[in-house]
């Protein structure tokens, strides 16, 4: 049996577009207010990518920053995974476009669709490929342009999301850095809690689907709320147990930036102070698969997460999917 290698995150990078959409900007489209959005979600603003900027363009910048931080050359990357539900095209994949543009000439590349859990899933796959020796340097990315899918007439969903990308290079490492544990889960969503109704093989794009506004995402926010709190608590406790420590020993939790109130409930149930959670939802809203890697990158670059710190990343999303990764950064 192959000996598993000790593998860590060598470097991170992220990118958000320049255009800021404040809460007040949404009052032009729907009956809402800055106060309602801030109090019910914790979001103050988010970024929207301009027309012509695709998911791959944001991913490319984040990936270059991650490779630079990891001191890894593009030709040494042998696996590119892009967690996204807003690919540039259904095919060719965003990962293949990136593989070429980045010059990762030796790399296999694929997209991974797990919605907001996309980076957790991608990291878990990358980690297992590298530790088994099937790849040496994996570039894992979470990138989304959700602004394209927002129905700007639906106040319950359009205010929640933003665009962006985050990336990490995973490779064998000396020293304290090590990915320790990961767990991935799913339960098929038969209730259409979160769905993009049209545009797939079940309901291809037609004039009718456009007129019926079936190319915009739909969510049942209240149901997501309960699901998110319970999964976040469960996953953080599981990571602590698998790492053989109490939850209080986790230096930083990097949660999917879904709603500040969800994170507050979870912090109360876990008995973890809010300052141990990395939170940037106020600036970017929910960027789906990009949310965890953007928060990770900000935590690393600001010095909040240091080498050797025990970090737990946790996310949940459409599918339904959820999962976690525990690591010594
Ligand atoms: C969407 C979400 C912010 C709604 O917050 P909530 O506290 O659950 O609010 P409710 O859905 O109970 O709605 C309360 C009222 O506010 C209204 N409301 C909803 N969005 C509003 C907005 N943007 N501005 C003003 N009022 C709004 C509702 O219409 C409702 O009015 P009513 O009582 O007259 O029917 C919250 O449920 C959430 O964040 N859910 C998870 C987000 C999510 O699904 N993320 C994607 C997957 S990871």
CATH topology of the largest domain: Peroxisomal Thiolase, Chain A, domain 1
CATH classification, class level of the largest domain: Alpha Beta
Beta strand count: 13
In CATH terms, what is the architecture of the largest domain? 3-Layer(aba) Sandwich
Query: DSSP strand (E) fraction?
Result: 15-25%
Which ligands appear in the coordinates?
Answer: coenzyme A
Q: What structural category arises from helix and sheet content?
A: alpha/beta
Biggest sheet overview:
5 strands, mixed
Number of domains: 2
Radius of gyration: 19 Å
Tell me the CATH superfamily of the largest domain: Thiolase/Chalcone synthase
Large-scale geometry: globular
Helix content, binned percent: 25-40%
Distance between the termini: 27 Å
Helices and strands, in order, run as EEHHEHEHEHEEEEHEHEHHHEE
Mean pLDDT: 97
Residue ranges: pLDDT <50 for 5 or more in a row?
Answer: none
Q: So how many helices?
A: 10
Q: Which strand order does the major sheet show?
A: 1-7-6-4-5
What does this structure look like?
By secondary structure, this protein is an alpha/beta fold. The chain has 2 domains: 7-175, Peroxisomal Thiolase, Chain A, domain 1, CATH 3.40.47; 180-328, Thiolase/Chalcone synthase (Peroxisomal Thiolase, Chain A, domain 1, 3-Layer(aba) Sandwich), CATH 3.40.47. Helix content is 32%, strand content 23%. The protein is built from 10 helices and 13 strands. The protein has helices at residues 23-26, 34-41, 55-70, 94-102, 118-131, 207-211, 221-243, 260-270, 281-284, 291-301; strands at 7-15, 20-22, 45-47, 79-83, 108-112, 138-145, 163-172, 178-186, 194-195, 218-219, 252-255, 310-317, 321-328. The strands form 4 sheets. The protein has a 5-stranded mixed sheet with strand order 1-7-6-4-5, with helices on both faces. A 4-stranded mixed sheet has the order 8-13-12-11, sandwiched between helices. A hairpin with a 3-residue loop joins strand 12 and strand 13. The chain starts with 6 loop residues before the first strand and ends with a strand. The model has no long low-confidence stretch (mean pLDDT 97). Coenzyme A binds next to helix 2 and helix 7.
């Amino acid at each position: 049996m192959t000996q598993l290698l000790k593998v860590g995150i060598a470097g991170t990078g992220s990118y958000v577009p320049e255009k800021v959409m404040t809460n007040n900007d949404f009052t032009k489209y729907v009956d809402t207010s800055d106060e309602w959005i801030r109090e019910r979600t914790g979001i103050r603003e988010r970024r929207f990518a301009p027309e012509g900027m695709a998911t791959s363009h944001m991913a490319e910048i984040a990936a270059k920053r991650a490779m630079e931080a990891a001191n890894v050359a593009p030709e040494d990357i042998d696996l590119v995974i892009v967690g996204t539900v807003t690919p540039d095209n259904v095919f060719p994949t965003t990962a293949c476009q990136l593989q070429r543009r980045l010059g990762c000439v030796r790399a296999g590349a694929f997209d991974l669709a797990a919605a907001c859990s996309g980076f957790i899933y991608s990291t878990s796959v990358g980690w297992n490929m590298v530790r088994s020796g099937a790849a040496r340097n994996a570039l894992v990315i979470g990138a989304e342009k959700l602004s394209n899918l927002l129905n700007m007439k639906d106040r319950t969903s359009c205010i929640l999301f933003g665009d962006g990308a985050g990336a990490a290079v995973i490779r064998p490492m000396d020293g304290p850095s090590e990915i320790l544990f990961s767990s991935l889960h799913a339960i098929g969503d038969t209730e259409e809690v979160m769905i993009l109704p049209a545009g797939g093989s079940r309901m291809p794009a037609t004039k009718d689907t456009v007129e019926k506004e079936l190319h915009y995402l739909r969510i049942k926010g209240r149901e997501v709320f309960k699901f998110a709190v319970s999964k976040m608590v469960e996953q953080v406790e599981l990571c602590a147990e698998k790492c053989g420590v109490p939850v209080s020993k986790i230096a930083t939790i990097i949660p999917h930036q879904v709603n500040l109130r969800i994170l507050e409930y979870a912090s109360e149930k876990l008995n973890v102070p809010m300052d141990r959670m990395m939170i940037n939802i106020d600036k970017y809203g929910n960027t789906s698969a990009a949310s965890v890697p953007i928060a990770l990158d900000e935590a690393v670059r600001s010095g909040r997460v240091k080498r050797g710190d025990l970090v737990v990343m946790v996310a949940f999303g459409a599918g339904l999917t959820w999962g976690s990764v525990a690591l010594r950064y």
